[in-house]
């Protein structure tokens, strides 16, 4: 990757910039073949998106005039390495009445920030913690 | 006295007729803003407004920041662009509305302004537009240039064999996305595998989702079986949102989670949901929906499934409801969101309302015209019946052809469909066997391949399916296992296709706005942006695409008409012979009626449109005239093929002054020599429903006129059939054969008619 952000002209990356696309294990798109799957050289792990790919797509969204979409890709990039059960636990916690107090959400934010470096998502949850308090969402729902 | 004693009717019976029409199954609601039944405007809607202090929102749509609910907070923080808002909010709504329908104002300019508009402002602007203007603006503002469509693929038995066959069929008809769900929640894994395999038959690229519980859906996606999700619902009031068990932050977190798994995602919102959930805050449907849509852009989702959706039926009970659904879709695309534009939950029992509902979308185009066209039969639709279903799919194909509009679908021939269905059933059977999940029998497979719906299949029991599904889940079977199973059993193409679909995740290109896969390439709002700027721009059918769309089945050609007629000839020549005996002249026999036959009658054409042999018609016409006490003479006209002139010319030759004119297609007239051409005595204009007995009575009446009597005219009863739609194409082709044989000034020819053998 050059330092310059990707633009609309680079899109779709798989067609126009295959040089910048690779899996977490460093495989290129051309390595992901049926033969590769059949000989176990390609696993489900190789068919996952990477944080880098999401940031690249964020650059393209920004260039296309879609800053909010880019922001979502940025948050997604931070969550790529967060395990599924953690994701589902935090999602559950964000639902109304699940967290009994602001502290529970702040703890989740801290976990994301400290364990996974998910700074943006952590700030996002901290923001929710404030709003939930103001809107009385820490009430237990039956 | 009788007038007074007879009971006076108290009802015009037409109302009883109307009571019986499907329309009357629809219930309509009175406009009542306080109860939430108002499409565009409620007295409780806020006035558009925004005040900023130092670039920070202080109040929005009449609500001060301290009183903001969660939705307001989220919109103010993430949707509104403070750089644009002052300019956008200051523009008169009417002026912006005009810009929306002004082809000279580029889409980009309007999208930029939307980033600075509050929900009330967006709603206010679009409420200035008529339905036509909304449709036009939608066509101009939608994000991706090329239109597309989405199918539901489900069945009442959750049968994986049928699921695969129907998925392959939907893909063949051109759907860009297919969505499944199940009758029994635990069958989700089986449905997902079956649809994923079926959708890999024939071509690759149809995106696929399995609508289920949020956590389950994400798991299925993680296993690689699905490629998109759209069940992330948002609502326009805080109480509905909470009742829906979410908040803007929980849903936005989920949106980021989907992105992190490389799965395309859109939210769902639609008018009427707050009404159905009982928390409408007395606001208009459009205003609440504008909030939902601003929220979705704020969350950073690429698109929305929008346009009533499950709330469409209740929205359509309100005055202006259908216009409102279009208006909310317009706000969605104006906010630069991909729009899967509803047209799914069947909002009416009236086929006329169905057709009217879909038309603006068909001609305007949409990213996904239906967010669930029921590609299967209504009773097989586990989401409930769609606006359009398997029953009506051909109607939709014809609408595309009628309006030369790309509705995203392509007609497919019978042979091709059978090949694909067989292949899909074989492929999923191979996967089930190879993975040790089930062993479908030959009878199961055969019944599914031919079945229109699950009523006709002999397949797995509900218990079998649940066991298949649970085994897939418990054994952690992933798409990799399925790809391997396909390859191991020789379904190499399907294995490749499925792999290509999952491989889309690596680059994430299909996460961008409005992305679909066409011919193996990603097409989205990024590389295929809608650039409409008036005629000659925007989406246009290419010649190739037009060819595809017009190629519906059973199209009549001249060759086909001639072939059918020729096939009738051998029978007719055994029944009748026409021997010309020279030029026909007028006679003075007052009891003579002349039958003027058309140029191709019995020479190139041998049956009426109703299918009666011409020999039989001629036989009863002559029989009727004779029975009526007159004599018949047959003359072939060669100067005209027009019914009126055939009759009038015949009348002028007849001693009685009465003639019958008859075309080979069966249209017949009784004429009198001194009348104006189109002022005949009797006419059978509807030849397709004219029976032999009518011709017999025509012969009798002609004789009666010749004898100076005034008979009861023969009426061919019609029940209002659309004769033109049924017959005019064929009639025109047949009639052209007649007119080709005419020549100006050609003399009428006396014909000696000989009936051979028995009547047909």
UniProtKB/TrEMBL annotation, chain A:
Record InterPro entries: Ppandiol/glycerol_DeHydtase_su, Prodiol/glycerol_DeHase__sf_su
Instruction: Name the source's superkingdom.
Output: Bacteria
Name of the featured protein:
Propanediol dehydratase small subunit
Organism of this sequence = Hyphomicrobium facile
From TrEMBL, chain B:
Span of domain Diol/glycerol dehydratase large subunit: 11-557
Gene3D superfamilies per UniProt = B12-dependent dehydatase associated subunit, Diol/glycerol dehydratase, large subunit
* Molecular function as annotated in GO: cobalamin binding; hydro-lyase activity
Q: What is this protein called?
A: Propanediol dehydratase large subunit
